[in-house]
Amino acid sequence: MESDEEIQDYSYEVDDDGFIDDAFIDDTDTLENEIVRQKSWEVLTPQEIEKRGKEVISEVQDFLGLPTITTAITLLRFYKWNKEKLIQDYTSGDPEKINKAAGITSFDLESKPKSNHLKFNCLICLEPVPMKNTFALACGHRYCTPCYGMYLDYKVTCEGPSCVNGTCPYPKCTEIVHDKAYTDLLNPANVDLYKKYTFRAMVEGNPHIKFCPAPDCSRAIRSERRNRKEAVICACGFRWCFQCADYEISDHMPATCENVEKWRQKATDESENVKWMIANTKKCPRCRKPIEKNGGCMHMNCRKEFAGCGHEFCWLCRGDWKEHGTETGGYYACNKYSSSMAKEDDTKAAQIKTELEAYMFYFHRYESHQRAMKIAEQQRLQTDKKDTILDKFTVRAQDTQFLKEATEQLINNRRVLKNSYIYGFYKES
């Protein structure tokens, strides 16, 4: 029997979606009762994404009894690929209302003409064409096939990824142009481009899946939680925030996404320049040009050689220097200052300067670790080159592996230290 002191409980938290995030799980099926760490995210290749997408489409079509794959795809896009939500609403709500909202007026993929022997006047090119050379979606808005094809070519080449949500060319018609219409009517050169957009839409429309932001990486990561705050690591080695999904930001822990967004805005905001001007300069009372004092007495001259007006004034009270002398305190003091409006302005400037100095304290240290991190990344590239050279001299992999591991650890440490100053700045403010 084990005592209470010898029994160790492993607690874990279950998120709102019912998934265990990076929890320790007691695997009783293993021989030695090992503790297994379960991930709540996974890396997917483009082939795996496409395969899973087809499985979801097929499952939705079979479960809801939809006549075509195209209808299932249209409904899934409308529901942002949330299969469970779609099935729940479709089975317990009003299917016709849902179809209409998704841009499906009928399960028919095409509105067939009553007779192929008639002539049809196309409303786009205004030319009479044989009825067999026309096309219309289920909404019935018919155009000649060449004009419809050019319309879809324009959607793909000019509107880009948004073409997957394209509607019928008839004004104010909300009927969604389905996949089959694109593949049948598009210029063959644009069919592959459309398929590429539909693949990206499958990922970008699903809040649980995001593409790796690293350059030249086509993988994606699927997270059990759409609002995941922890970082993920792609198979390419890039570590990034699942919420931001930005290459420049990457993994920004311990700072939050909101902190990083405000920090980046603050670093590029013109108001920071204005704050510096207020805190470190004073305007000439006559021409209002900013002047910085870097030493000397209180006698200031707005120099004409620097595009000034030549006005001479007191740095403290901003009064005309002609009214100053030994009776007002001389060159290094001013007894008019305490009763002037300039004192109130200087008090506000001092407060801004204090805030600015606090920001610069954190910013300089952030930039220092940012530069050091880039140097470490260059060292990582050099380590890879050294590894290639050492291979020629039959050096064991174990003897060089520690260089890579040490460099990776250094980069991670720099990243955390860099972002800790963002966290610290907003923690104090």
Structural notes for this entry:
The chain is built from 11 helices and 15 strands. Strands 3-9-8 form a 3-stranded antiparallel β-sheet. It has a two-stranded antiparallel ribbon with strand order 1-2. Helices cover 44% and strands 10% of the residues. A hairpin with a 6-residue loop joins strand 4 and strand 5 (128-130). The chain has helices spanning 46-64, 69-78, 83-92, 95-101, 145-159, 179-185, 188-204, 257-268, 271-280, 342-391, 397-428, and strands at 24-26, 35-37, 41-44, 119-121, 128-130, 134-136, 142-144, 209-211, 220-223, 231-233, 239-241, 282-283, 290-291, 299-301, 312-314. It is mainly alpha-helical and 429 residues long.
Amount of helix: 40-55%
Q: Quickly name the level 1 CATH class of the domain at 119-204.
A: Alpha Beta
CATH architecture of the domain at 119-204: 2-Layer Sandwich
Please provide the count of β strands: 15
The major sheet is characterized as: 3 strands, antiparallel
CATH superfamily of the domain at 119-204: Zinc/RING finger domain, C3HC4 (zinc finger)
Low-confidence stretches: 1-32
| Portion in beta strands | 5-15%
- Overall pLDDT: 79
User: Separation of termini?
Assistant: 54 Å
